[in-house]
Structure prediction request, 135 residues.
Amino acid sequence: MRTNIVRHESMIVSYDVVDGWTVVEVDGEVDAHTAPMIREAVIKLLDEGRRHFVLDLGFVAFMDSMGLGVIVAITKRIREHEGSLHIASVSSRVLRIFDISGMRESYEFYPSAAEAVQSPPSPGSLAHWPHPTSD
Prediction:
């Protein structure tokens, strides 16, 4: 059963649990005004004990660099909790932001959320995420 966790005039964030994955669906615009709400929603789910996420961006009409920034921020949090993240249903426009930023190789992309939940959750899904350098 899908549960709404954020309702804003230009965006809705909801989630459902499917085969051990918390599927977070974003519907609307992801920008400087809405990105922090997504971050807080995922943090709340992490605080509730959820660790393995699919971020479904199939209904994202617009995403800017702040949107990418929030994905980076939630990736760090998920990694700190030894979780995993798959990203699903990304449009070519949104995927271009990942390409331009050089972040495409750091994530696992799936054509749909249904396909993303097929593989078992694994901390190894963030294996390509940049590791902090030790000085």
Summary: Residues 127-135 have pLDDT under 50 and may be disordered. The first helix runs from residue 35 to 47. The domain at 3-117 is CATH 3.30.750.24 (Transcription Regulator spoIIAA).
